[in-house]
Amino acid sequence: MVSNLSLQNGTVQWNDSTGTHIRGYNDSLGWGNYPTTIVPQFYLTDLYAQTGLPIIHVRDYTIGTDNVVFDFGDGTTSINNGHVLWHQYNGAGPFTVSVSNISGTASQSQSISFPCFITYNKQNSCSQICNGSIELIPPSTSTQYSLIWNTGDTLTTLDSLCPGNYIYTFTDTSGCIESDTIQITAPTINVVTNHMCADECIGNIAVSYTEGLPQTTYLWNTGETVPYLSGLCAGTYTLIVTSANQCIDTISATVDSSFTMSATVVSPNCYNFNYGSSITINASGGQPPYEYFWPALQWNSNPLVNEGAGVFELYLSDHTGCTDTFMITVPDPPQIVITSTSVNPSCAGCSDGIIALNILNATPPYNITWSPNFGTLSGDSIINLKAGIYFIEVTDANSCVKYFHDTLFVAVDINEIPAYENVSILPNPASDKIMINFNSPLTVDCEISIHDALGQVMLKEKIIRGVTQTEIDISHFSSSIYFIEISGGGSNWYRNTLIKY
Predict the structure, then answer these.
(1) CA 461 to chain centre
(2) Three-state SS for 415?
(3) Is 2.60.40.10 the CATH classification of the domain at 3-112?
(4) Cis bond leading into 427, ω under 30°?
(5) Rounded to an integer, what distance in angstroms lies between the CA atom of residue 355 and that of residue 341?
(6) Segment 349-371, tens digit of pLDDT
(7) pLDDT at 382 (0 to 100)
(8) Mean of the per-residue pLDDT values for the chain?
(9) 3-class SS at 385?
């Protein structure tokens, strides 16, 4: 029990069961036996201009008791000797701030208000429908004001709002002008699933809901009512989420037990050729990093390049050791095809033959060369040619090469060739020797002559009457077209074409 309380020379003196006490306070030195006043004094600073919030700073300078009572006028009090306090309000005011001694015998008060502080209540929207709302609460000191929203509305309450930003500008007659943005959001659902190897039931699904208040409910198609499922087999699971404001969202999540893979396939540049081919794998569904193994090639790579056309087996493995097998086909590009339309020279030794080429499946532009190198190229046609065999090479823009050959013959008037059906030449074409057969013995001496496309005589031999066949060696001839003629009895009675290869 305290007794004999007295005030003397700026100190407090009292008696209790433990003895007599003298107590004072100096702002620089702290508590002690110092002369001081017991009347509370304080300064109040409005920090709204600096912070944009209804915050005050209270500084207590002279305290004559151990503790001082701070009453902020909004139902909040504080009893301490801290000398410096901050306080934030939830409204515009006015509020009466008072500081008093513990006994309540000395007190000072000041009034504070925040004429431009505007509060609001909002309810966010659902994701499926626009049912958000905003209630703007003007300062109590503002009796006449104007309000305009970026939507064109002028009321303090907006409803049926979709997710988005809503900007208001508030002006009252006291000169308060305030503008701010209020965001209406909609709940979102984030789903995380894990991958597992085939024939396992260790899958997990974790759901996070941005409006995950205690009133939020979860209902899975399995009957579970929690946001996390474990021990799942492969399959698709459906969840219905209902938020506190009755927003209802439905999602499906799939637990996968196998890889998914897509392959970008590029064919080789040329038919039956390796260069230019590639297989690029894009794997998903597993746990990276992935490993790629081609067992037939004993090779680990992605992409696989320059292996040509064919069917390739791939072993695909993920970080957890799950493995799957895929078969990938690389097609061959179409083969270059060459056909021709030929015009034979008009006579032996003439140079007016033509080989017109029809080139398919080649990538233009392409280069055409030929041998023997007679004639000239006009488009895809070789003109001004003599009779003979021509070997042609076509190279396209991808460096693909195709070989072709064609034969031009000497045109002979049918009236110049006497009919003699009892003669045959075998083989024709031939590489080294030919056998000329007569179905009946010759009745006159004959001569066999062979000349080339230019008319140059390559061979002449006599055949005596009575023979039925004769052999001729042409192994020393170059590969070309030749013309064989048999004459006797004063006339040419057999003429034919001979091909040497």
Answers:
(1) 81
(2) helix
(3) yes
(4) yes
(5) 6
(6) 788 999 999 999 999 998 999 98
(7) 94
(8) 81
(9) strand
CATH 2.60.40 correct for 337-408 = yes
pLDDT band of 7, cuts 50, 70, 90:
very low
Q: Which two tokens stand for residue 410?
A: 């000497």
Whole-angstrom distance, CA of residue 258 vs CA of residue 272:
35
Q: Are 470 and 450 in contact (CB under 8 A)?
A: no
CA distances in angstroms from 282 to 98, 192, 324, 368, 456, listed in the order given: 72, 21, 14, 41, 68
Q: Tell me the whole-structure pTM to 2 decimals.
A: 0.42
CATH topology of domain 189-255: Immunoglobulin-like (2.60.40)
As a dihedral over the C-alpha atoms of residue 72, residue 78, residue 84, residue 86, rounded to 10 degrees, the angle is: -50
pLDDT, tens digit, 9 for 90 and up, residues 451-473: 876 667 889 888 888 888 889 99
Q: By the 8 A CB rule, do 156 and 165 touch?
A: no
Tokens 């701070």 belong to residue: 70
Average pLDDT of 128-154?
88
Rounded to an integer, the average pLDDT of 376-402 is 91
What does the block give as tokens for 320?
């957890």
35-63: average pLDDT? 67
Query: Is 2.60.40.3080 the CATH number for 416-500?
Result: yes
Q: Is the dihedral of CA 356, 358, 364, 370 positive or negative?
A: negative
Counting residues of the chain whose pLDDT is more than 90, the rounded percentage is 30
**What is the pLDDT, as a whole number, of residue 38?**
45
CA–CA gap between residue 141 and residue 92 (Å, rounded) = 8
Residue 290 has pLDDT above 60, yes or no: yes
- Its CATH architecture, for the domain 119-184, is Sandwich (2.60)
Residue 33 burial (CB count, 10 A): 12
How many Å apart are CA 34 and CA 19, to the nearest integer? 19
Q: Is residue 388 left, alpha or beta, with left meaning phi > 0 and alpha meaning psi from -120 to 50?
A: left
| CA–CA separation, 44 and 87 (whole Å) | 11
CA–CA distance, 196 with 215 (Å, rounded to integer): 33
